[in-house]
């Protein structure tokens, strides 16, 4: 979640600039998001006097010469650089981000075969072919109400906006 603050706006500006300009990156905008996280961590490292981030993982954001995304190579690069910049998994530190430990809380549960049966801070419908009617029905929202996140629904009376 992104706080509505100068830092949050800075992050979104960097992310949205990439998302608008980068074509065919990993999962449409995932590569842009992941690279923005590494860039921010790199800026923090540089401010501490440490080595920053030189975009070495970006080479895996786009398809290779055969047209395939090398998601595993990108993920391994991301984890290695993130560890160097922010510390090991479960103990990452940043003045910009708070890294939630997924062993303690599911902050981004991908709705799949298990549906909404597992508690999570955020339930995420992933993939390119989303069934929008099912998603809206799942959360008790009529399509006519989807333009206003402040309007509560019968199933979600405390629906809050994402900021």
From TrEMBL:
It comes from Durusdinium trenchii. This is Uncharacterized protein.
